[in-house]
Amino acid sequence: MLTVVSVVSAQVDLGVKGGINMSNFGGLDNNKAKIGFNIGVSLDYDFAPNMGIQSGLFATTKGYKYKGNSLEYSDNLVYLQLPVHFAYKIDVTPGTRVFLHAGPYAAYGVGGSRSLKVGEFEGSSKKVFGDGAGQYKAFDAGLGIGAGVELGRLFFDLGWDFGLVNIAQQGGDVKNQNAYLSVGYKF
Questions:
Q1: How far apart, in Å, are the Cα atoms of 121 and each of 74, 93, 127?
Q2: Domains of the chain and any CATH numbers
């Protein structure tokens, strides 16, 4: 009976969320952060007055860029990402809450591109995931942390995802790192 009461009193909010990313690869030298995006549907499950689970399904870009004397190189990886974060929410005023969240994520690469510019030569490729040399493993997983504020149905979220899986097919230890700033709306 206690379980039924808990489930009935829990609040589930669906919403949309999107924003900008600044991503990079850990394990590589001389690379620069790459600007990208994240967009998707969010799920917020409040199971206690100040505690909940934040999840959803998001399309997010990750990758890196390198710029040298006459060389420019960029990898733009697109993932479908599923985070499952525990959230602690603090009431500030009626309708306004600050929240902290942390937990794991799993992601799967669904596309992307690679570009190379050396002097006058320019080239590109859409095959960034696969078993070949220079390609990446499609599966990624890691941990994320963040903080945000809810203003009624509108919310802002600032966070950091750091990959724990080596996505390099050959050589090196390459892991995704991604900072994001998002805005969302709960229905």
A1: 14, 58, 19
A2: 11-63+81-109+137-186 (2.40.160.20)
